Model the fold of this input.
Amino acid sequence: MVCLRNYTVTVVLSLFILYGVFSDVFSQEKPETDPFGSERLAMVREQIAARGISDPGVLASMTAVRRHLFIDPSKADVAYSDRPIPIGHGQTISQPFIVALMTELLSLDSTDVVFELGTGSGYQAAVLSRLVSRVFTMEIIEPLGKAAAERFNKLGYKNVMVQVGDGYYGLPGQAPFDAIIVTAAASHIPPPLINQLKPGGKMAIPIGSVFFVQNLMLVEKDSMGNVTTENILPVRFVPLTGSR
Amino acid sequence: MGLRLSLFVYSAAVLSAQVALMRIFSVTQWHHFSYMIISVALLGFGASGAFISLFRERLLASFTLYYRLFGALLAITFPGAIFLSQSVPFEPFLLVWDVNQYIYLFAHYLLLLVPFFSGAMCIGLLFSREHRRIGNLYFVNLIGSGAGTLLIVPLMFILPVGQLPIAVSALSVIGVAATYTLGKRKEWSYIVIPLSAIWIAYSIVSPFELNISEYKGLSRSLDLPGARSIYESDSPLGRLSVVESPVIRIAPGLSTAFTGAIPPQKALHFDAASPTAIIEWDGISQPPEYLDYLPEAAPYSIVNKPDVLIIGLGGGRHLLRAVKHKSNSVTVVERDERVVKLIDDDLARFTGRPTALDAVRIIISDGRRFIKTDSSTYDLIEISALGSFAAASSGVTALSETYLFTVEAIRDGLRLLKPDGMISLTAWLKHPPRDNLKLLATAAEALEEEKRRYPGRNIFFFRGWGTATILIKREEFTETEIEKLKEFCENLFFDVIHYPGINKTEVNRYNRFSEPVYFQAAAEILSNARRREDFYASYLFDVSPAKDGKPYFNHLFKLTSIPHLYRTLGVEWIPFIEWGYIILFATLVQALIASTVLILIPLRFLKQSTVVIRRVRKLKIWIYFSSIGLAYMFVEIVFTQKFTLFLAEPVYSVSVTLAALLFWSGMGSYFSGEIRKRIPNAFLIPAMAAALIITEIALLDHVFNAALHLSLGWRVIIAIVIIAPLGFAMGIPFPIGLKALGESAENYVPWAWGINGCASVIGAVLAMTLSVSFGFSAVLTAAAGLYIAAGLSGLITGDKVFIPFNDSGMNNIRCKDNR
Done:
């Protein structure tokens, strides 16, 4: 049973790889040799699918986006490791599983418009861009924002719009958004972003330090505009009293 | 005279260097990583023992030269090591993933080892050469170390942290200069003139630019658009920095119901950690609206024009809220005078000076001391446990002692409440639940000790998406109060966790967990003592209450949970560990390994030396010197933490306790020869220290309770007097042991010195580890046991009367002349 499951996962992921490669050819990223294809496949299989991420779109996007192009080339050999990677200015690119989980939690549709607070390297926005219509992302630290904009331009991501500036107030001109993702640590949920979330929309926020995400908060706004939050533990931490 | 003066100054320099290094690493990194690095640096003492053991004859043949040379090396390499270490890109959090970090850490070790090794060489060389006068020299060494502690603390008020290494270097230069009486003037000029030139060069480039970790709050604030540092002040209490930027907005746990704007803020950083907000207010109009949308605002829904006590001014958030609700009186207790001056003076235009209002009374004091000694009564006591979230979530503060969140502190607080008054405690939520459950357990046990049979009736507990608040009343909550608090929670989308008569259907509505974990845990804690104890025992984290004898509120990690966490989570368990605790264990392991190596290496070579002692004698030496080394550090570490409650500030506690302990030990050492003559049974000497430790365990808390209300000056005097007999007794065993060893096996003196140095390093780390797990009394009892073991070590071979290492018949010592 386990073998059959592994076989199925491998087949599905291989299809995603093919999809990723061909979608590269026909759409966004320029076709070029991919020295990390097998690492990326292993990452999706072992770190993401094995931990319960099952949304085919998310798995496909994680398979297609070349994570090693979003970090310093000197760190490319650890790009697909199960860890966050420093990108300077006290920021990191989250561990792949957290990126996948945040993306899956938003239950995205191809017509959706998403706002991201905290572009960082741009990796999260790149993953989102393959699933939705448009991604607006804002980065407060200028060097990071400029580097991400150049990267998107170079890699051919046409539906990601980067702005350098204070994302706390969102983008009223582009609102409302179907989903919002907050990747920068905050002491509170910015009220303007709640206002700019569509009724029925979702917002995902990681809680913890830049290295260790302890839980994810999913903010949901119902059709009446009421807001509820849900705490999602990124690990299978069920037992309340475990060592009895 | 020159010899003693130089020893005094070298000793002062080495101890000042340790304190300066701790301060530097508290700013640039988290202070527990500094312990790790400092403990390795202190291994310089062990290394010096090994080095002198191996090259003793050569070193002593040119004693003056080497005594000066190592003093000069201390002067040059301490600032040099700090300067170079700032360019090593060590990031402790990356140790889990990045092997390069181990190389960087090792580079830190090597850099810092050099100055401490140099300083220890000076002291060790002198002890080796003058072992017959060891009582006198050890006295000078301890007095010098004590003076170093007292000197560096005032210097921290005057000098920026980056200039402290230069001050230490200056001391070492004086130490070298003081050796001039030992040799010819010409020789002296060869060393002192270039040394002074180097020191002047250092002074020109100082203060060194400290390379603060990019992951600390201050670095991140300074990266914000338009950010600039507008205030920076160093003191022994820590570095205070203020950053201004138009995009600073801090509102911990703000309700999602808030739709307004947060007014401009400035970021106030303590030791470069995550900031608290200094809020803009004009001093006239109503304080900002958002303050009422924070969970901490809950008490104001049931109190009317209250008398409020706020522990910790911070950026003034609690004070502004109290002003907003027209409180009858507001008493703010703040430990750091600079914070008050900032709000009241330096940033007066920005803050609107809420501190200057008629109803507001500002008191500069430690919060715990205030609530223990105050006699007024209040409607509301607000204590915030909201430190840095990043620090709390990563557990780097796990080993910081705090006397504000203990059972005894809550009891003191309850005593200050009016009949309808309440204490409000707010802390960050962590998942799985930890800190807040510990706070709840602390409140429950405090109420029980105050004879409240059903503590659950006096507690209202609720949470938002990011924080949880516990309200503790002296009397039971009334139905009207409960209704008002429920309404507050409902309006702001906060979830109730517990109140008297709560129904399960009311919980986990707005900020949902897959299971109502907080409700379930609170029900266990508030049920009865037996179920509560079972819950503590079975829960994955240590949520049992902190007490004054074990004041580690932030320590929640259970070692016994590691197998379970690893089994169920694999490497994903990493976010749940407490870095402070793990680093402490890593430090202990590395200190043990390094010590073993440093003790064993000389032994291997000493076999070929002039005097060989039988194995049993080596064991005696090892037991004796390691026991007294461990015991001394056990007492020192516990006293510095325990006296924090009495002297009200860690930095005063460390300086007064250390200085007093070292001074009295120095006196003990000075009179050790005389005492040795008068007490023929040598077992009694360490046993005397053991007996005094047991006496202090019994007396300390009573003395603290009786004298805590006195002024700082009186408390310092009382501390010095309390420490005197024990410090005196603890100063005797080392010099009499070393002297006796010198008389019978001279070449083993540096080895014994090395053992003692290594044991001191291990003792410091072990004392912390044991205190966290078993409490202060257990560690002090262990120290007493170690002194007994040291006393008994002479009885191993059946000696009726223990004369340390000086058997008159030489039956245990075999002389072998290899020459």
